[in-house]
UniProtKB/TrEMBL annotation:
Keywords: Cell membrane, Membrane, Transmembrane, Transmembrane helix, Transport. This is Transport permease protein. It comes from the Bacteria. Belongs to the ABC-2 integral membrane protein family. The lineage of its organism: Bacteria, Pseudomonadati, Pseudomonadota, Alphaproteobacteria, Sphingomonadales. It is found in: Cell inner membrane; Membrane.
C-alpha cells in the first residue's frame, strides 16, 4: 500500500533546493606549445621585422645628418657643375650636361649612404660592445643580412627621393623619368651592392679609421671615376677598358638611362654583372655572419 504524503513533507520537498550535476570537464588548449614543438617557423618574421625597424629608426632619429645633409651635399655638386659647365650649350650623349649629370649624382648619393648605414651600424655595435644584440637573438645569418641590407636600401631611397625632389625644382635641370623600371632596378641593385660591402667593412673594421679608409680609398674613387660627370666614350685606351671593370659604372649608367633613355654601356651585360657581383657579396657576407668572422673574438 502506498504511503500518503503529508502536507508538511510535501512542503519540505518543494522548498529543498535542487543540486545541479557537475558539468563535464572542458579540455582547453595549453597556453604554450608542447615541448619539442617549434614556435618560430622556418623564417623568424617578427625578429627580422624588429631588426629592420631598429635599423630604420637608428638612422631616422638623426635624419638631419643621415638624409638631409647628404642631399644638400649632392645639390652642392650640382650647383658647382651647373655654374662651371652647365650654362653653355654643352651636351653629353645628346642631352644637356645638367640633365646628364643629375641622375648620376642621385644614385651616387644613394650608394654612398647605403654603405655608410650598414658599416656604421655593425662597427658601432663592435666598438660599444653591443654586437651581442645580433649574435644572441634567434636570427639566422640570412635574416640578419636581409634586415641590415633592407635598412640600408631604405636609407638610400630616402636620400635619393630627397635629392630628386629638390632637382625637380632646380632651374635648367630635367629629371623626368623615362623608364621607371630601370630607375628602380639599378637604384636598388646599387644600394644592395654597397649595403653588402658595408656589412663586410663593418665586420672587418676594428675602429672608425678602418671604415673611413674603405670610404676614402675604395668607395669615393670608384664613385667619382664611374662616369658620373662624363661619358666613358671620351676616355681612350686603358682608361676606357678600366671603366668597364668598375661596377659603379653599370649602376650609374643604368640608373641614368632610366631618366634620359640612353645607355653609355652594355644594357644586358651591366645587369648581369651587377647580379653576379651582388650574389658573390651576399655569399661572402652570409659566410662571415654564419662563422662569426671578427665578431666572436
Amino acid at each position: 500500500m502506498a504511503t500518503a504524503t503529508t502536507p508538511t513533507q510535501m512542503h519540505d520537498q518543494l522548498a529543498k533546493p535542487s543540486v545541479a550535476k557537475p558539468a563535464a570537464p572542458v579540455h582547453s588548449e595549453p597556453a604554450h606549445s608542447e615541448p619539442g614543438v617549434p614556435i618560430i617557423g622556418r623564417i623568424n618574421w617578427p625578429g627580422l621585422r624588429t631588426l629592420y625597424v631598429k635599423e630604420v629608426r637608428r638612422f631616422f632619429k638623426v635624419q638631419l645628418q643621415t638624409v638631409w645633409a647628404p642631399a644638400i651635399t649632392t645639390l652642392l655638386f650640382l650647383a658647382i657643375f651647373t655654374v662651371a659647365l652647365g650654362r653653355g650649350n654643352l651636351t653629353v650623349l645628346g642631352v644637356p650636361f645638367n640633365s646628364f649629370l643629375a641622375p648620376g649624382l642621385i644614385v651616387m648619393a644613394m650608394m654612398q649612404n647605403s654603405f655608410a648605414n650598414t658599416s656604421s651600424s655593425i662597427l658601432i655595435g663592435k666598438v660599444q660592445g653591443t654586437i651581442v644584440d645580433i649574435l644572441m637573438p634567434p636570427l639566422s645569418p640570412g635574416e640578419l643580412l636581409v634586415s641590415f641590407v633592407a635598412g640600408a636600401v631604405t636609407r638610400a631611397w630616402l636620400v635619393g627621393l630627397a635629392v630628386w625632389g629638390a632637382m625637380v625644382l632646380w632651374p635648367g635641370v630635367s629629371v623626368a623619368i623615362h623608364n621607371p623600371l630601370a630607375v628602380v632596378f639599378y637604384g636598388t641593385m646599387g644600394a644592395v651592392m654597397l649595403g653588402l660591402l658595408g656589412v663586410i667593412t663593418g665586420l672587418w673594421a676594428d675602429k672608425f679609421d678602418h671604415a673611413a679608409a674603405v670610404t676614402n680609398f675604395v668607395v669615393q674613387p670608384l664613385s667619382l671615376l664611374s662616369g658620373t660627370f662624363y661619358s666613358i666614350d671620351r676616355l681612350a685606351g686603358v682608361w676606357n677598358t678600366a671603366s668597364h671593370f668598375n661596377p659603379f659604372f653599370y649602376v650609374i649608367d643604368g640608373f641614368r638611362s632610366g631618366f634620359i633613355g640612353i645607355h653609355d654601356g652594355p644594357v644586358i651585360g651591366g645587369a648581369i654583372a651587377l647580379a653576379l657581383i651582388n650574389t658573390a657579396l651576399w655569399t661572402l657576407c652570409y659566410w662571415a655572419l654564419r662563422t662569426g668572422w671578427r665578431t666572436r673574438q
